[in-house]
């Protein structure tokens, strides 16, 4: 197969982890006979530094012309504590999501037996956890207008807004995913307070009869924030709006003990995007110590979701499991054993595939 | 001292737990020579059922004329899954907060040595946790206008809005609390996305020089949702807006293993309100099995925060600790030992005080 992949390494450790994913993708290409070409684009703080724009048109063209985007991470502390900064790296990310039509962020949470002891939760709570969030990614308070300040600057406001269609298309993805899993869908909202949440709940209630095999539960976001920690095994598929999804998927990311390994996919249009859920981790940038496995597993998701190539995806998962079993891993999960460099792990994975 | 207390038992287990707090408050009154009188009001689902209004004027008059309000819980499942319901119990709660000017919700999280093993977190993560949230309670998306639907009903919107003054008064409470504690203040926001959050961060940055002994940290709400679970001991005082506070304080409530014991205070005006953080727990209503200790400890907070009576507050904490030590507790924390009824625990506590 011909594959045109856009590479967006981004900031911090982004370039280092993307480099390892590329090694793995190339090895898969070689082994399975795919013809893979890459185009690289700037995004985030590095794009601001180079062009003044966190998502330059040139980058968008590369992405829009690709089959799939592999994304590293963005964010730089120098922009975070300046609330008056006019351009922020995150704006690039948001514009990218919107312009590419990536309205669904898919974030699985699952455990690796060899890592679950690193969870902050007790083993019996988290052992075997397996759920997936479908977070709406191009609506809500992230994009709603009006937003800003009054003239004197003494008052600020944001608008959360959702249309029925935005909810329907995200919810359908959740229902379909649930049909292929344990058939439980949890709709997360704040319908006791917010008008947008009431439209979410109402819309999901209307769709539910079309999926009679799926059990639907409705829970308030505050209750889910509790129960995710208390009984994470109770969940299967969760659907929610953009801001709640931001908070809850990050909360969820720490419970398995494998945060450095969690991949994600952003879907919704022809071009799909794949990225690790961790951030740009600026303290580690350039040190060749960051864990590349989340990005490598995001590449596995890419073969599956973007190209429908399950064997290729499986081959990557297998080799990641092998690296865990043999302890060929970075220091964050080395557990007192020998720690390997980011680049060494990438080389090892690629060599094992071939 | 003369004390006029408004009692708002509310729904579900509310009346049962409030009844135990009253026994304890009366015992304290007798022992320390206070003259305590009560007026009871309806709020929540029971108020809708009786009057059509979840926060009737008569209830507001009782609260506004009191020195302090002791609140149970509200909420009834029959209203939750009807997104088109015109009147909801929660509206009563929100109107009450606003009309009484209760702009700051104070929620401590701390551990009881005898209960910390019930935490879903590993002991070393949670042992000795001690932080407190100051959640803004009368602003943000809970009250912002406009909110609602477009004419066709196909689009819904909410408005989040904050003025500088609303942020200043809440933040000052947080700074002052930090000065009396470990001198660390965490400002929780989403300043990389939301205009309101940028005003929060900017305002807190402006206030910080007035409190040179307090170290201020700024963290995004999604990062806090993670770190609360990973390193809860890292926090001291956290300040945040209404919706983030709703989600994060509930998340925080499960980490100590003592959720059934966590009290809260709502401050901001002459009349202060005290309530357990748990909900109305409708499945347990009327069974005399609910844990009354959170409500009893809320009464302790009342003596301290509303009346400045620290010895009285301490006497209540002491007797609660005694009930834990002697295992005179309800089934949720009986741990295989004998479980006592809600009413028995209340009687026991009152008797021990006298
Ligand atoms: C960087 C930030 C704008 C972004 C978001 O809030 O969506 C991030 O937290 C994420 O979840 O991808
Ligand atoms: C019942 C609901 C409206 C309320 C809130 O969201 O404030 C509750 O969750 C709380 O935290 O007191």
Summarize the structure.
Two copies of one chain form a homodimer. Chain A is α/β, with parallel strands linked by helices and about 350 residues long.
What does this protein look like?
The structure is a homodimer of 354-residue chains. Chain A is α/β, with parallel strands linked by helices. Chain A folds into 2 domains: 1-103 and 268-354, Isopropylmalate Dehydrogenase, CATH 3.40.718.10; 106-258, Isopropylmalate Dehydrogenase (3-Layer(aba) Sandwich), CATH 3.40.718.10. Chain A contains 13 helices and 12 strands. Chain A has a 10-stranded mixed beta sheet, with helices on both faces. A two-stranded antiparallel sheet of chain A has the order 6-7. In chain A, helix 1 links the parallel strand 1 and strand 2 (35-40). In chain A, helix 1 packs across helix 11 (293-307), helix 1 runs parallel beside helix 13 and helix 11 runs antiparallel to helix 12. The relative contact order of chain A is 0.17. At the A-B interface, strand 6, strand 7, helix 8, helix 9 and helix 10 of A face strand 6, strand 7, helix 8, helix 9 and helix 10 of B. Bound molecules: 3-isopropylmalic acid (2 copies).
